[in-house]
């Protein structure tokens, strides 16, 4: 078995490439022996930054690209027209098996467009999701999905999220039978809006999902479920609200471990689920610490093999 | 002008009637001189409880009723069949002008059914809402609506919530021009789900609403808006999540004023907006402290006259 190859967009994020290079240099000693980081971006600049960091090892490769997709670009259009952009070339490497995962703190839209145009959606998956690990009061994390990709979800899509989230939690967190809940406004199965009521019935009948029923807002932080399913509109609001609590705690000088852990930087990046491959999305304003952790998290995701589990679960005949 | 008459369901809530009577007795000295509490419920039991509390004043009246709508009853059916229930008789008094507002910690569904069957929805209002005051880090409150009545909201309904919330915040909080925001997943007007995108355009064109645009999850607690509009599915999840933070803070021994204020008991009850009259809904598990404050809040709502403002705003020709 050849070594893992972790693809990183050197040009993605508000503080790129400087913060990305610093983060990668910090991450390298933390990776498995032989794991390789493959950077996509401005080669001369990257080499300069690596020199400035005093990096002289052999675990970092550079694939030279000349273009950058910015936050102002139309994601799908930019992916198609900027043929030598770091995101485009990164995804081509992922599709060709030259890297085993690809992560960027750049445009989420361009990352998703790239995934769809290259590795594609896993067969049988209606819509991919972006998930996020939200700290809970038990000291662990709860996987929330979707957090912004699909703002209007059909029940079938929510039901698939239950299975995708479950498979991810199994592999990444080593849970034998992750508890999966549907975010809703009451415990009873008759409660909810049209989508959640229909989704409840579908999830309840799914094999391989340990469905614990509806999860109300008061159990969002309690870890009652390991995976919480909701549409991307709700998930995005909750994700940003959760993150804000960390800043509120800081501003109010509240010293509490749970509130401090409501920090995306700890994981650094969050996976797109339901695409053929490990695709990680980082926060636009990622710091060096966040980018360091994004590299580590990407390695973890590659090793865990959840993407293959999802592929098999949705197209078992292949 | 005759004195205010505050109708209270003595039989509503998990700890009724004991907690209600205690709460009312505690509330009476805090009310305006001459304000009258009118209790609906089991007369003998109420009198017994009033004696036990040592209450001998003249500010509490009792209207005897013999039936109770429970949390297990079908709300609308129970309202119609239990003709001598405390909620039904309370609403009849409200509709006849014998009381100026009616509050209950009993079945929210029965309260809304009662409002619709008696005083009715204000002319021009598509759907009433239940709002809730959520503590913000500025030391004040943000009005969130809807918090559970309408789980699938059309854009027109969300737009009306903007105006109703604004009129309420003006009168209750004395704000000249309350900042109204639409809960959404991005700042730009092009962001959101189908309903929020359409609602944005409608609210932006509304007269009498100081629309500050989209509010993201990270500004849910910051007081960036005085009124936050969302559908009842989102609002219910957020309300319960907010409330849970108070318990999390308590369990983790976090001593913080903002987190402590995420406590429904402080207001005790929350108004239904868009119905013809002051209708207050309390938490099912209301304590004496919560019920005491519900009585006070109902008096405040009656005095503020927001219900009349809403009526006029939606049917200006009358």
Task: Offer a concise description of the structure.
With 318 residues, chain A is of the alpha/beta class. Chain A is 40% helix and 18% strand.
Folded structure, characterized:
The structure is a homodimer of 318-residue chains. Chain A has 318 residues and is of the alpha/beta class. Helices cover 40% and strands 18% of the residues of chain A. Chain A has 11 helices and 11 strands. Chain A has an 11-stranded mixed beta sheet with strand order 3-2-1-4-11-10-5-6-9-7-8, sandwiched between helices. In chain A, strand 2 (36-41), helix 2 (43-52) and strand 3 form a beta-alpha-beta unit. In chain A, helix 6 runs antiparallel to helix 11. The longest helix of chain A is centred in the last third of the chain and has 20 residues, at 232-251. Chain A is globular and about 60 Å long. The model of chain A has no long low-confidence stretch (mean pLDDT 96).
- Strand element count of chain A: 11
How many helices of chain A in DSSP terms?
Answer: 11
Q: Which radius of gyration of chain A do the C-alpha atoms yield?
A: 19 Å
- Classify the beta-strand content of chain A into a percent band: 15-25%
- Could you tell me which chain pair has the largest interface and how many residues each side has? A-B, 40 and 40 residues
Q: Can you tell me the residue ranges of chain A where pLDDT is under 50 for at least 5 consecutive residues?
A: none
Shape assignment of chain A: globular
Order of helices and strands of chain A: EHEHEHHEHEEHEHEEHHEEHH
Q: Give the neighbour order of strands across the main sheet of chain A.
A: 3-2-1-4-11-10-5-6-9-7-8
Structural category of chain A is alpha/beta
Q: Determine the fraction of residues in helical runs of chain A and give it as a percent range.
A: 25-40%
N-C termini distance of chain A: 23 Å
Report the sheet with the most strands of chain A, covering strand number, pairing sense and barrel closure: 11 strands, mixed
The average pLDDT value of chain A, as a whole number, equals: 96
By oligomeric state, this entry counts as homodimer
């Amino acid at each position: 078995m050849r070594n893992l190859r972790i693809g990183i967009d050197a040009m993605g994020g508000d503080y790129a490439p400087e913060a990305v290079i610093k983060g990668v240099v910090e991450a390298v000693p933390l990776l498995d022996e032989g794991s390789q980081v493959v950077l996509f971006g401005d080669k001369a600049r990257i080499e300069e930054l690596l020199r400035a960091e005093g990096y002289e090892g052999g675990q970092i490769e550079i694939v030279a690209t000349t273009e950058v997709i910015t936050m102002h670009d139309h994601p799908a259009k930019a992916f198609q027209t900027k043929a030598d952009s770091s995101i485009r070339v990164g995804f081509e490497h992922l599709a060709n098996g030259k890297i085993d995962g690809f992560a960027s703190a750049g445009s989420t839209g361009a990352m998703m467009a790239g995934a769809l145009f290259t590795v594609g959606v896993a067969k049988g998956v209606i819509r991919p999701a972006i998930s996020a690990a939200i700290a809970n009061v038990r000291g662990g994390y709860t996987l929330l999905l979707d957090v912004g990709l699909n703002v209007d979800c059909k029940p079938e899509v929510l039901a698939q999220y239950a299975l995708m989230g479950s498979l991810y939690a199994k592999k990444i967190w080593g849970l034998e039978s992750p508890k999966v809940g549907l975010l809703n406004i009451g415990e009873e199965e008759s409660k909810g809006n049209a989508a959640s009521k229909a989704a409840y019935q579908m999830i309840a009948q799914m094999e391989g999902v340990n469905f614990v029923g509806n999860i109300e807002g008061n159990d969002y932080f309690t870890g009652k479920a390991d995976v919480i399913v909701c549409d991307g509109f709700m998930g995005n609001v909750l994700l940003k609200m959760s993150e804000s609590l960390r800043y509120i705690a800081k501003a109010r000088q509240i010293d509490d471990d749970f509130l401090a852990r409501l920090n995306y930087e700890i994981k650094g990046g969050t996976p797109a689920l339901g695409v053929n491959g490990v695709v990680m999305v980082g926060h636009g304003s990622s710091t060096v610490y966040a980018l360091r952790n994004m590299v580590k998290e990407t390695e973890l995701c590659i090793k865990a093999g959840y993407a293959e589990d999802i592929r098999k679960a949705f197209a078992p005949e292949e």
